[in-house]
Amino acid sequence: MLCREAAKRAVFALGQEVFIERVERRGPWLYAVSYVRSETRRDVCYQVVLKIKLGTRYFVGRCECPDFKFRGGPCKHLVRAKVALRQYLKLAKRSS
Fold it and tell me: Which of 12, 13, 14, 23 could form a disulfide with 88 if both were Cys (CB 3.0 to 4.6 A apart)?
């Protein structure tokens, strides 16, 4: 996806690198769909889906990037999305 399209649909942006599209709660889990800018192709954003168990550090995620598809392990895009989600949750907690 192009980053300019992701930026239009974002509810939260961490700089110009991470765009969170939606966050929803399902039972003890928190689901977040975000887009993280590629370092090599600056106009492309990869979709990252995070599933975090509330109250713990446990999370599961997947990314569209070639590195994640090849290795299957956590990539830098997952880490950036998780950091942005924590910032978003801090702001949401302060405002409520």
Answer: 12
From edge to edge, which strands make up the β-sheet containing 29-37? 12-14, 18-26, 29-37, 45-53, 59-63
pLDDT digits (tens, 9 = 90+) for 52-93: 988 888 888 999 999 898 987 788 999 999 999 999 999 988
For residue 41 the two structure tokens come to 């192709």
Buried b (16+ CB within 10 A) or exposed e, 27-46: eeebebbbbbbbeeeeebbb
What is the model's pTM?
A: 0.88
> Distance between CA 24 and CA 32 in Å, rounded?
7
The CATH topology of domain 3-95 is: Nuclear Transport Factor 2; Chain: A, (3.10.450)
C-beta of residue 17 within 8 angstroms of C-beta of residue 34? no
Run of H or E including 30? strand 29-37
